[in-house]
Write a structure and sequence with these properties.
By secondary structure, this protein is an alpha/beta fold. The chain has two domains: 3-140, 3-Layer(aba) Sandwich (Rossmann fold); 148-249, OB fold (Dihydrolipoamide Acetyltransferase, E2P), CATH 2.40.50. It is 30% helix and 30% strand. The chain has seven helices and 15 strands. The protein has a five-stranded parallel beta sheet with strand order 2-1-3-4-5, sandwiched between helices. A hairpin with a 4-residue loop joins strand 9 (173-177) and strand 10 (182-185).
Length: 252
């Protein structure tokens, strides 16, 4: 039986390269392709592939964010694809079948594919499920990045997560609001949310994330929402659809 395989990468040439290599494999059925993390989550849930080639850095939601988003569902065997070697070690730490460092040749691809197929063939022996459970546990307990790199007007700044008061969506950017300044970061709100510690940074609306440690008080609004008052006096709104986040902000 062929293994349903999904290609997930935001670079068209990278998807084409993987498609060409996979099309020569008699054990593989290419189920589809995705160009960003949000598409990938929807496709994995709908298609239930047995194997995915997953790019690490993508718009909307990165590769690790994709895995967090499908927690609780049927997990495919994973081969990470990345242009950055620093992600390779983390890929092994989260029990991926293998990783491909761009640019890769056919021989390296064949090695990764063989490892993935071997793991897929052991899906019923319980060991794969244990590895996948460990993968999700490690992702869930992953610490917030030590610093975020922000580029602006030819300069590079480093921002520690604890310096951030709140984060606001701005099209394909996010604006990091600090006490006395702000920075634009070319990343989506979903992607930055996946990178930050979930117990410390709380999504309070479609467009806003707050640093829990910077919240001074909560005020109930007449229409059912809440005003979130930060220590610096900034007033934000927690929308009704995010009321389940109140307990994460300390509301009994």
């Amino acid at each position: 039986m062929k293994i349903r395989t999904l290609i997930i990468d935001d670079e068209p040439l990278a998807r084409e390269r993987l498609r060409q290599l996979l099309s020569d494999e008699p054990e593989i059925e290419i189920a589809g392709e995705c160009s960003n993390g949000l598409e990938a989550v929807a496709a994995i849930r709908a298609m239930r592939p047995g194997l995915i080639f997953l790019d690490v850095q993508m718009p909307e939601l990165d590769g690790f964010g994709v895995l967090n988003s499908i927690e609780g569902g049927a997990m495919p065997v994973i081969v990470f694809v990345t242009a950055h070697d620093k992600f390779a070690l983390r890929a092994f730490e989260v029990h991926a079948a293998d990783y491909l460092l761009k640019p890769f040749n056919r021989e390296r691809f064949q090695t990764a594919l063989r490892r993935a197929l071997e793991r897929a063939g052991r899906r019923d022996d319980g060991s794969l499920q244990e590895r996948q459970s460990a993968l999700l546990s490690e992702l869930a307990s992953a610490k917030s990045p030590e610093r975020l790199v922000v580029k602006s007007a030819g300069r590079i700044a480093w921002v520690r997560p604890e310096e951030i008061c709140w984060i606001e969506a701005a099209d394909n950017y996010v604006e990091l609001h600090l006490d006395e300044k702000s920075h634009l970061l070319r990343e989506t709100l979903n992607a930055i949310e996946a990178r930050l510690a979930p117990g410390e940074f709380i999504r309070i609306s479609r467009s806003v994330i707050v640093n829990k440690s910077r919240v001074r008080e909560l005020q109930r609004l007449f229409y059912g929402g809440y005003a979130v008052i930060l220590q610096n006096g900034v007033k934000l709104t927690l929308s009704r659809r995010y009321r389940d986040k109140l307990k994460h902000l300390g509301m009994p």
